[in-house]
Design brief:
13 helices; nine-stranded mixed beta sheet; alpha/beta; Spore Coat Polysaccharide Biosynthesis Protein SpsA, Chain A; 346 residues
């Protein structure tokens, strides 16, 4: 067996047991495998209650060719002290102001030297054996560029609250929804160099944008293994910024279909004929219910102008009419519904 790292790391806080506190992953030393270097970047900013668990879940993988980088944005909550405890086992770390999460991840990736890259947010956790399973899969399928797996949901106390089984890869479905769980996703460095790094103008869906750009050539695949745990807590962006996230996702999908998707002959009819409209319906409805009426109308109008079967157009238009009536409380609803029916040719 490879040497144990558990006894070398700082002891866990009182009362912390199990993975990744008192348990570690290992790879048998008799496995005759050239393990590719995996570079993990953790962007960190004021997540001290969760950061140490994240760090240990990476280091205790027992993976023999690991490069771990932490980019902290100038935390003031004790995160820096936690990072310093583990700096002996880090390839690089820094704590300084940055331009947000995407900028921090890109900074880390530009320093990274691994053949396989990923990022793990400072409140999420890898599960035992994740890196080993990822490496073996890329070795078996060397032509692939992006890999993703299944996901656990955990709460503030790391109690499991749910499970996500990701679907098999489909580019058409990916435009319909971002079904690729970010904490379980690993990329070939060559793919990053080919399509570019994270778009730093995006704040919520930079992962979705990157997945679409890499996956456009259909060299992505699903690994049926549970690789990571995503943490829901009151401060997480998924919890606090749902509307903004939904709108940004629609913008990313629209840009992909306009700039990239036409080159790859997306076959909507083999999946659902109205897949391309879904991100815009979702964004429009989210905006309606948050009271942002003008923005909502723009996204809903885009949705109706995308290809739909006649039956789906009718259902969609009537559903939107109900939203109009409910949100407008009857005021101007008749005129809005009339305009809607003309747009949808009903």
């Amino acid at each position: 067996m490879l040497r144990s790292l558990l006894g070398e790391l700082p002891p866990p806080p009182d009362g912390k047991t199990g993975w990744p506190w008192t348990e570690e992953g290992r790879i048998p030393s008799n496995e005759d495998v050239r393990w590719p270097k995996i570079s993990i970047v953790t962007p960190s900013y004021n997540q001290a209650p969760f950061l140490e668990e994240t760090i240990r879940s990476v280091l205790l993988q027992g993976y023999p060719n690991l490069e771990y980088i932490i980019i902290d944005g100038g935390s003031t909550d004790g995160s820096v002290e936690i990072i310093r405890k583990y700096e002996k086992w880090l390839a690089y770390w820094v704590s300084e102001p940055d331009q947000g999460q995407s900028n921090a991840i890109n900074k880390g990736w530009r320093r990274a030297t691994g053949e396989i890259c990923a990022w793990l947010n400072s409140d999420d956790v890898y599960l035992p054996g994740a890196l080993k399973n990822v490496a073996r899969s890329f070795i078996e399928y060397p032509e692939k560029e992006l890999l993703y797996g299944d996901l656990l949901y955990i709460d503030q106390k790391s109690t499991i609250s749910g499970y996500l089984r990701a679907p098999d890869f489909s580019l058409e479905r990916l435009v319909y929804e971002n079904y690729i769980p970010q904490p379980t996703t690993f990329l070939k460095r060559a793919a990053l160099e080919r399509v570019g790094y994270l778009n730093e103008d995006l704040h919520f869906c930079m992962d979705y944008d990157l997945w679409l750009r890499i996956a456009a050539n259909r060299r992505s695949f699903y690994l049926p293994r549970t690789l990571a745990a995503f943490r829901f807590h009151p401060q997480s962006k998924t919890t606090t910024q749902f509307v903004r996230m939904t709108v940004e996702m629609a913008d990313v999908a629209e840009r992909f279909m306009r700039e990239i998707g036409s080159e790859w002959q997306l076959d909507w009819e083999t999946v659902l004929p109205d897949l391309s409209a879904h991100p815009f319906w979702k964004a429009g409805c989210a905006l309606w219910f948050s009271g942002e009426v003008e923005q909502a109308e723009r996204y809903l109008t885009v949705a109706l102008r995308l290809p739909l079967t006649s039956s789906n157009t009718e259902v969609a238009a009537l559903s939107l009419a109900q939203i109009y009536i409910k949100c407008c409380c009857g005021m101007g609803a008749v005129d809005k519904v009339s305009s809607l029916l003309k747009l949808s040719h009903l």
